[in-house]
Amino acid sequence: MTDPIIDIVHYLASRECNGRRTGTPGSAAARRYIVDNMIRAGIHPFGGINGFVHPFGGLPEGETGSNIIGIIPGKGALMDRFILMDAHYDHLGKHKTELKYYPGADDNAAAIAAILHAGKQFIETETEHVGDRRSILITCFDAEEPPYFNSEHMGVEHFCKDFPEIIERIDLAIILDLMAHRMGEGRVPEKFQEIFFVIGAEKSGAGPLLDEIRDAVNGLSPMRIGAHAIPPSGDYVPLHRYDLPYLFLTAGKFKSYHTCHDSAEKLDYPKLTAISNYLAYLISVLAEAPAEVFVYDRLGEDDRTTLSTLEDIFARMDDDEQIAGNQSVFDFLQKRFIQGDVNSPTKLDNIKDFLQRSIRQCELDGSLSHNERSKIKYLIDIIARYMY
User: Fold this and answer.
1) CA 273, chain centre distance (Å)
2) In terms of domains, do 227 and 308 share one?
3) Residue 68 and residue 217 share a domain
4) What are 277-288's pLDDT values in tens digits?
5) What does the DSSP 8-state code read for residue 361?
6) Could you tell me the pTM of the whole model?
7) 3-state secondary structure of 64
8) Which of 29, 185, 301, 359 is spaced 20 to 30 Å from 224 by Cα?
9) What sections of 319-369 are H helices per DSSP?
């Protein structure tokens, strides 16, 4: 039996794993623990050392990294096609004082726990899948964090280089990062705590499928948003270069990000459990989805859906009785989003007007103009400031 989600996070964020920095004893401890939980979940070894470990070298200072790769075999005509579900497991290691370490509970122990339990739940309901279905690759890539971040040394880069035949057969990749922290560390309403973002569906035919299952888990709000609004980084950059359909799931950054305070006791475990349940359902649907869902369109955009997501978020913000007292957010609205009368007492009204006009423009023209689309990033900044 796989360890409970809360136990997985606490162990990976513990002193024993000591920050899980690539090439360290703490990383090795985390790796053994993850593999053990994969085995107990019923996830099969993909291949390599001990069946699950994909080692790679060539890192600065002679370090060796180790990806963890498991598989849930598919069935029938689709078994040689893959859905990849990934969360990097490395973190920043020891603090420079040597007395502290970076726990990395939300970055990214929480996502590891979510994918392990999603895989376990998928296996437990396997008898419900009677037809052809894709295999599920469950990966925990190493060397995602600095100094390897967005470089050729990342574990996902080595995976792509060493397994080109697998890359060609991946129909869609799901990447998780920063999933379970409390939005605003509890200073924003509960209805914000259920939010996480699903990025990249506009690059394939996955959007309508995601819309159909949006309400699959009570108390959870997966919100679609375009990759132009939250640009690619981390593990999905190499996959993006292969014209591989992807979904990037995140709740965004938070105050304890990359600090020694990203600790296990601060996370929202009911939300993390709900996310894991959502993932299990998502991969069950994707495993049997028709091929047209996975047709990649590098230029694909869906401004209408992004605007609807923003409209939903700002409506929730507008209901927050505390926003008038949140001076940092109010000042940010004043300075960064100039829409209508700059002396208006509430910029939220102006933002809502902009969103409504932009949605009407999309309905008429199919998309936003370049100038109007550029304003979306200002709105993302406002949301990030509010939820930070």
Assistant:
1) 15
2) no
3) yes
4) 999 999 999 999
5) H
6) 0.92
7) coil
8) 185
9) 327-336, 347-365
